[in-house]
Specification:
single chain; 264 residues; Aminoglycoside 3'-phosphotransferase, Chain: A, domain 2; three-stranded mixed β-sheet; 12% strand
């Protein structure tokens, strides 16, 4: 539960309630969303987002405490933005997620590479480097043969810039409003890669049809790179004890179906 002192530090008097989704650690109160942690990413977002022209999407900008800090007792806050998760059983939802991501990536294309990206050593950062052959990792034996089938599909995807590498669960829709893009996970990659991750998620977890890449105009090479990223993440998290054997077998089957769906 969020400590009352944290609410006071951000000038909030209303009681907090937990939010669904994510890692189950977010709370909302007084028009803000509170999460534990933040660090250099949160401070960077607080600096750069005011200079981003939000055309075609709504951001959730970080806010400071009453004394000007970005965190208090390990908690950070952003503005609450109205919206709900789109119905991912519908192809139109994936069209909207991709469209929101493209609007976001156009808006942040001018940003410099954040220096903290290279310092990240979490499972997702390691998996991202592995997907781009910048770091060697030993994929789990149930994943390695499927990953090898993707190598022939890899090709350049364009110049790198700041991208949101986890759009799938972080686009919210609301009637009459542009989609909200929240919980930004920055990577320095081509925008097509971020879109490939979305399509990979759709194929693996949401029953999207094999025609989705063509529908949303995301190249197979981008989906292949996104699948490699997700497989490497599963492998790294399994090695760390965060993914069970049963879950790994299930995910391996899903990845194999997705790889087949893109003709690999």
């Amino acid at each position: 539960m969020i400590p009352p002192a944290v609410l006071r530090a951000f000038g909030v008097a209303a009681p907090a309630r937990p939010l669904d989704g994510g890692q189950g650690t977010s709370w909302t109160a007084g028009g803000l969303v509170f999460k534990p942690g933040g660090g250099r990413l949160h401070e960077w977002l607080g600096r750069v987002l005011p200079g981003v022209a939000a055309d075609g999407f709504r951001p959730a900008p970080p806010v400071r405490t009453r004394d000007g800090a970005w965190e208090h007792d390990g908690w950070s806050a952003t503005r609450w933005v109205p919206g709900r998760a789109p119905d991912t059983a519908s192809v139109s939802a994936w069209v909207e997620i991709i469209r929101a991501g493209r609007a976001f990536h156009r808006a942040v294309a001018h940003l410099d590479r954040p220096d903290f990206i290279d310092a990240r050593q979490d499972a997702w950062a390691i998996a991202d480097r592995a997907a781009w052959q910048e770091r060697d990792i030993a994929l789990h034996p149930q994943l390695a043969p499927v990953a090898r089938r993707l190598l022939a599909a890899l090709e350049p995807l364009g110049p790198a810039q700041v991208v949101h590498g986890d759009l799938t669960g972080n686009v919210l829709v609301a009637t009459g409003l542009a989609p909200a893009v929240i919980d930004i996970s920055p990577y320095w990659r081509p925008p097509a890669y971020a879109e490939g991750v979305v399509v990979a998620d759709a194929l693996c977890w949401h029953g999207a049809p094999p025609s989705l890449p063509e529908t949303v105009q995301v190249p197979v090479a981008a989906v292949a790179r996104g699948l490699l990223f997700r497989m490497a993440t599963t492998s790294e998290r399994h090695a760390a004890g965060a993914v069970t054997e049963a879950a790994l077998r299930d995910e391996a089957r899903r990845y194999a179906r997705a790889v087949a769906a893109i003709g690999r």
